[in-house]
Amino acid sequence: MTETDTYKTITKKTDNILFKDKNSKFFGYAFPVLTEDDVKTHIEALKKEHHSARHWCYAYKIGTETVIFRANDDGEPSNSAGMPIYNQILSFNVTNILIVVVRYFGGVKLGVSGLINAYKTTAQLTLEASKIIEKTININFIIHFDYPNMNTVMRIIKEKNLNIINQKLEMDCEVTISVRKKDAEATFNSFNTLHQISIKQCN
């Protein structure tokens, strides 16, 4: 079985997905996130925007190989909101994403099964409205070399069509490249065998 080096995510916010059940209103939002600070920022903004709502339930998943996730019921009965949202994230196989469902209580209790269905459906509709794209898992390397070796380094970069994300070309040169995970080992070996050129992985 080949190890995959791609993942699915969203690149922009999806909002205003409305689901109604027995006068309760559920507004769904999806945000691209890379850190838990991003999550906090989006939730604080929604609490200001929907200051009169009753619940701001959410789930997020961050990372590709090492994954951080959380599901929050925000006062709803245990596992009736956060987990149904998170299960939709798993179902759509997306990561680096936060889904928040804001609930305005309509005066009629839905019961636990009604809540599970409402939060699941809102999250599903939100994901269906989102533009989901596939991205590659990339590894970055820093290549160190002195100026006379520049042609050698640049020739390999051009031949292999490598993506330069940073460069400092002086007497002491440094180039940072980004490579698809599946090509990382071969790329590392292309430079590592060369005299007077060093390569190391960076975060």
Automatic annotation (TrEMBL):
A Pfam family the protein falls into: Impact_N
GO biological process, one term: regulation of translational initiation
Cited Gene3D superfamilies: Impact, N-terminal domain
GO cellular component assignments: cytoplasm
Domain Impact N-terminal: start-end pairs: 22-126
Entry similarity comment: Belongs to the IMPACT family.
Name of the protein in question: YigZ family protein
Organism: Seonamhaeicola algicola
